[in-house]
Specification:
This protein is α/β, with parallel strands linked by helices. Helix content is 35%, strand content 21%.
């Protein structure tokens, strides 16, 4: 039964009481099927639902998002998962439906960041997807519907306290939205700009070739940014976001952060990582943390001891040269930015990560400098003309 309000235990923090969500008019489009959602859960749920719904609409593929603190840690669509990714993502023998593949891509883009995430799924949740979710540490999930068997699997998580929300897929909010900050009400038109291939028509570089796979990945990156705390930059590859730099004060910091995450994603597919000799009995999270430290450089003595204790025998570390050689294998990466690039340093860092396709609004006084940098690397860059700040 739909409600007009849901009373919450507290707001952002335990001392922020009372707290609730409600509709000023009509009823909530949400139904709580299990558990008791919190304030931050619901912020994640509503932002992530908008993302996956829009992505499904744009690409006609099931979509999934993994959210933490109102920004996506990973986003994916329901393309087949190849054998290398299966080894890296470790679904085991579980069947991968298109929705399950989308979820696996979203959850495994940045497994360390996704620990304890909120999940959004664009279509009815099937049993394979629920079985994958059941294995991970997560706060809750939102979707338009659930198969009965899938719902029972999800209800059993967290000793029966896992939050499961259903949302009316036909719900549309009012065009004008408001929010209160420090007792003052802000009002604006909702950001309902449509992101699709029509935004990718203005190619400004010498290289004009933009294949359909690149258009798909740029759309994934742009829609991801639409629901990411700004400033933000997103790297995408093969149907998923692989590195999100969110909430930074400088554009280059966004790019560096997102690039580092993307490189980590590529390196997790290195044969040396896929064949690490883990000790028996390690949890998935413990393995993820051990891999993260294994791939990092300049560890302090405590970190060095921590990652080594997770293995039957201490494996040889990948050298910087090994890493660079492996990363050169990936050269079809897409990159999008929620606002213009003010300097070419963003392009130089992107080139180190195999970026070939870029989408950004344009409009900087140094646009030509950035275009020239892309031409040096034979990149393809489009100006969308649309800024995607999200706060």
């Amino acid at each position: 039964m739909k409600q007009q309000e849901i009373i919450l235990r507290y707001g952002n923090n335990p001392h922020q009481i009372p707290a609730r969500i409600y509709c000023k008019e009509g009823t909530l489009p949400l139904t709580v099927l299990n558990g008791s959602p919190g304030y931050i859960n619901l912020l994640d749920a509503l932002n992530s639902w908008q993302l996956v719904r829009e992505l499904d609409e744009a690409l006609a593929l099931p979509a999934a998002a993994s959210f933490k603190h109102v920004s996506p840690a990973g986003v994916g669509v329901g393309l087949p998962v190849n054998e290398t990714l299966r080894q890296a993502y470790q679904p085991g023998e579980l069947e991968l439906s298109p929705l399950a593949s989308a979820y696996l891509r979203a959850r495994c883009a940045d497994r360390v960041a996704s620990f304890g995430d909120w999940i959004a799924l664009s279509r009815q949740v099937d049993l394979p997807t629920a079985q994958l979710i059941a294995r991970e540490v997560s706060d809750g999930v939102i979707a338009p519907a659930y198969e009965p068997e899938a719902l029972e699997v999800l209800k059993a998580k967290k000793r029966g306290n896992y939050v499961v929300l259903a949302i009316d897929p036909e719900y549309e909010p009012r065009e004008i939205e408001t929010r209160d900050v420090f007792g003052i009400t802000f009002e604006q038109k909702r950001n309902n700009v449509k992101i699709n291939e029509t935004l990718l028509q203005k190619v400004v570089t010498a290289n004009q070739e933009l294949p359909s796979s690149a258009q798909r990945d740029l759309i994934i990156a742009l829609i991801t940014l639409k629901y990411t705390q700004s400033n933000s930059v997103c790297f995408a590859y093969d149907g998923q976001a692989i590195g999100v730099g969110a909430g930074q004060q400088s554009r280059i910091l966004c790019t560096r952060l997102a690039a580092a995450k993307a490189e980590n994603w590529f390196l997790r597919q290195h044969p040396a990582v896929l064949n690490l000799p883990f000790k028996e009995g390690l949890s998935r999270a413990e393995r993820d943390n051990a891999i993260d430290l294994y791939l990092r450089e300049n560890l302090n003595p405590i970190e060095e001891q921590f990652w080594q204790k997770n293995f039957q025998q201490v494996p040889a570390r990948l050298s910087t040269a090994d890493k660079r050689a492996w990363l050169k294998k990936f050269h079809e990466t897409a990159l999008a930015s929620d606002a213009f690039f003010p300097f070419r340093d963003n392009i130089d860092r992107a080139a180190e990560c195999g970026v070939k396709y870029i989408a950004q609004p344009g409009g900087s006084i140094r646009d030509q400098e950035v275009i020239d940098a892309c031409n040096e690397y034979q990149m393809v860059m489009v100006f969308t003309g649309v800024r995607l700040f999200h706060h």
